[in-house]
């Protein structure tokens, strides 16, 4: 397994999350400096997979700037297309991002993203859903196939929502000129939403790569009085954490690593301290009993996503 670094919280001062502490990101220059430092620390800690997107504010630009300080062929960058960041770093913005899965949006965003070459290895549809029709859009699929061949890229998609498995199944049957187009699936997975387990073996058997996002369930795994329904889970997580002398974040990341074989699990660390805590997943192994216990915290995708929907940008 590989721990990767997701850059959503490094490129946007506000992010959908349950924050543990107050945090002031109003100074953009300072925010940028801190984010750059997280990238550097991640690299120095052995992380080589970096996930970004134009929908993440200044993240792509930041990663590009950071790559210019490197000369290391082992670095892999993944980016996406389909979301435009619209909040303009305004804390009071009502709309933070706009989704558009059109050919013109793909070409426009590729035009900037291609600057990440030769480090760019993975190009993804950002939050592919059945509703946008992107998996039936011949022009888009043909253009992605052209990029795949022209630049030797892996083409992937990210999934969000209650029907992640359905979207993945549909995507696996998408053919362009008789060939499957999708090589990689970036999926929300944690011990609350375990739906990926339904299809992970099939993906692995078909040599598809899996990237796990939102392993910390947007912060819901951390003890929080707003979620009395998770009280028992919080108590047990605390015990497991103490048992391994790490934080709940490392437990959650380790759970993903041990239950989905060979996946890249993304850290969404927004500062160097969080990254340091996340990296402790390399220091221990969960027992079979502990994994069984974590499996028991599973909730329905409907419950998981309706809870997530009401999380604020902060």
Question: What does this protein structure show overall?
Answer:
The protein has 314 residues and is of the alpha/beta class. The chain has a single domain (2-18, 26-309), classed as NADP-dependent oxidoreductase domain (TIM Barrel, Alpha-Beta Barrel). 38% of the residues lie in helices and 16% in strands. It contains 12 helices and 12 strands. The chain has helices at residues 8-11, 28-44, 59-67, 103-113, 138-151, 164-172, 200-205, 231-244, 248-259, 272-278, 288-295, 301-309, and strands at 2-6, 49-51, 76-81, 83-85, 97-99, 120-125, 154-159, 175-176, 179-180, 184-188, 209-213, 264-267. The longest helix has 17 residues, at 28-44.
So what's the overall shape?
Answer: globular
Measured on Cα atoms, how large is the radius of gyration?
A: 19 Å
Query: What count of helical segments does DSSP give?
Result: 12
> How widely separated are the two ends?
31 Å
Any idea how many domains? Answer: 1
Give the strand line-up of the largest sheet.
1-2-3-6-7-10-11-12
CATH homologous superfamily assignment: NADP-dependent oxidoreductase domain
Layout of strands and helices, then pairs:
Elements: E1 2-6, H1 8-11, H2 28-44, E2 49-51, H3 59-67, E3 76-81, E4 83-85, E5 97-99, H4 103-113, E6 120-125, H5 138-151, E7 154-159, H6 164-172, E8 175-176, E9 179-180, E10 184-188, H7 200-205, E11 209-213, H8 231-244, H9 248-259, E12 264-267, H10 272-278, H11 288-295, H12 301-309
Parallel strand pairs: 1-2, 1-12, 2-3, 3-6, 6-7, 7-10, 10-11, 11-12
Antiparallel strand pairs: 4-5, 8-9
């Amino acid at each position: 397994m590989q721990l990767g670094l997701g850059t959503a919280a490094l490129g946007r001062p506000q992010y959908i999350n349950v924050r543990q502490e107050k945090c002031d990101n109003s100074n953009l220059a300072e925010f940028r400096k801190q984010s750059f430092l997280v990238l550097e620390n991640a690299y120095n800690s052995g992380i080589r997979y970096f996930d970004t997107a134009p929908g993440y504010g200044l993240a792509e630009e930041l990663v590009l700037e950071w790559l210019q300080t490197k000369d290391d062929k082992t670095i892999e960058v993944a980016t996406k297309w389909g979301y435009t960041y619209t909040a303009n770093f305004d804390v009071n913005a009502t709309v933070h991002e706009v989704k558009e899965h059109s050919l013109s949006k793909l070409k426009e965003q590729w035009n900037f993203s291609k600057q990440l070459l030769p480090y760019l290895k993975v190009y993804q549809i950002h939050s592919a859903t059945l509703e946008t029709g992107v998996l039936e859009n011949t022009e888009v699929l043909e253009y992605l196939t052209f990029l795949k061949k022209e630049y030797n890229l892996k083409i992937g998609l990210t999934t969000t929502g209650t029907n992640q498995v359905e979207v993945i199944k549909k995507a696996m049957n998408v053919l362009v000129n008789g060939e499957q187009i999708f090589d990689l699936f970036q999926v929300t997975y944690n011990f609350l939403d375990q739906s990926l387990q339904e299809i992970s073996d099939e993906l692995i058997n078909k040599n598809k790569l899996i990237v796990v996002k939102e392993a910390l369930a947007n912060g819901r795994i951390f003890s929080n009085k707003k979620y009395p329904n998770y009280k028992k889970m919080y108590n047990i997580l605390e015990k497991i954490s103490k048992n391994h002398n790490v934080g709940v974040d490392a437990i959650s990341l380790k759970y993903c690593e041990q239950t989905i074989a060979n996946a890249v699990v993304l850290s969404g660390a927004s500062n160097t301290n969080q990254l340091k805590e996340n990296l402790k997943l390399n220091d221990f192994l969960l027992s079979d009993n502990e994994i069984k216990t974590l499996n028991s915290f599973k909730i329905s995708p409907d419950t998981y996503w309706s809870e997530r929907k009401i999380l604020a940008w902060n």
